[in-house]
Design brief:
alpha/beta; TIM Barrel; 2 domains; six-stranded mixed sheet; three-stranded parallel sheet; binds zinc ion
Length: 357
């Protein structure tokens, strides 16, 4: 609605009433301009103010637990899916690795707030040959994954690092592993047995996307969560994969385009098959269309993987950007993304200690 197109009502023709009319006209114009401004602001999207579930978080030994709890509280983030980062921090940093025991302790100390996955950012999985032919260390990981899931205190498996761009030096930084492999097949069978999802990080190289499609097809009883807006794929790839595979879900972890790092800024690098999700707090139109077409498939995540990044400024910046972006979706889709999808996909309402299957 534009102010200039609104009808102006004239009263009388005398000098005095002409003056009054002019004043009234000015008043109307001001009123309508104000109304139009108000309407366009409302249309541009109200910031989402509801509770948020952070469906993609990490933990290492250098994280301060009080900081995590307080940044979540301040931002009305009620729950976090939390994955141990077994990898050491970047060379030279004091960012200590984590493990599943640490994550479990956190979950038990704050029941209903932290939901551990069996951590897969593990040094033992570095070396693509191991994904094709396991060694003793990989066998141990598979065995322990089953044991951990059998306790009922884990809600999934991840983050499995399939294809990852280096952002630091060190042998675990750049990864390129086969997604259609005996290791992934065996992990998938375990996930199916315990009815839990697998979160995977895989930049969308076309040959890997094809292989992933085969894995999805052969394991239809497994829910796969393809992190970072489906491996930072372009919109047509996301659409095609979601249409074909009902067992595919994606998270938008780290995809806010804020700060200096985070996948949503194009960091640490982008290939031709990668895309952003948003620019300056506005969804790319083709991404927004996908989100409205698949309201049950996406979740949010702040994806803080290193202790120095777990601070109020960084965490709030990501949450706030998500709130702004959710305001551009329909109310129902926004609530799904913020909360309901995570509850359903991870089955967070299951009681800790109980096993689904
Ligand atoms: Zn990731």
């Amino acid at each position: 609605m534009e102010a200039a197109s609104m009808p102006i009502i004239w009263y009388g023709t005398s000098q005095c009433s002409q003056y009054e009319s002019r004043m009234r006209r000015v008043a109307y114009i001001l009123l309508f301009t104000w109304m139009a401004w108000g309407t366009s602001c409302a249309f541009a999207g109200e910031r989402y103010t509801g509770t948020i579930i952070d469906a993609h978080g990490h933990l290492g030994a250098s994280f301060r637990e009080e900081t995590i709890v307080s940044v979540m509280d301040t931002n009305n983030v009620s729950k976090q899916i939390i994955m141990a980062r077994y990898y050491p921090g970047p060379t030279g940093s004091a960012d200590q690795p984590g493990n599943d025991e640490l994550v479990l302790e956190m979950a038990q100390k704050y029941p209903g707030h932290f939901f551990p996955l069996v951590g897969m950012q593990r040094e033992e999985l570095t070396g693509s040959y191991k994904w094709s032919k396991s060694d003793e260390a990989v066998e141990m990981i598979l065995r322990q994954t089953e044991e951990k899931l059998a306790t009922g205190h884990f809600w999934g498996i991840g983050e499995v690092i399939v294809k990852h761009y280096a952002y630091s030096r060190g042998r675990h930084a750049e990864q390129d592993n086969p997604v259609y492999s005996p290791f992934m097949q065996r992990l998938s069978r375990i996930a199916a047995r315990f009815d839990v999802p697998i979160v995977l990080h895989m930049e969308a190289a076309p040959r890997l996307v094809e292989d992933f499609a085969r894995l999805l097809q052969e394991n239809r009883d497994v829910r796969y969560i393809w992190a970072h807006n489906c491996g930072r794929s372009h919109a047509p790839v996301i659409r095609a994969m979601l249409i074909t595979h009902a067992n595919l879900f994606c998270d938008l972890a780290g995809m806010t385009n804020t700060g200096e790092t985070g996948y949503g800024t194009g960091w640490p690098r982008m290939e031709a098959f990668n895309s952003l999700m948003e620019i300056d707090g506005k969804f790319l139109p083709e991404m927004r269309e996908i989100y409205e077409s698949f309201p049950d498939r996406f979740m949010l995540g702040m994806d803080v993987a290193h202790a120095p990044g777990m601070n109020l400024r960084n965490y709030s910046r990501r949450v706030e950007r998500f709130r702004e972006l959710l305001g551009q979706l329909s109310g129902a889709t926004a609530k799904n993304f913020a909360e309901l999808n995570a509850l359903r996909i991870f089955k967070l309402e299951r009681k800790a200690g109980a096993v689904s299957k």
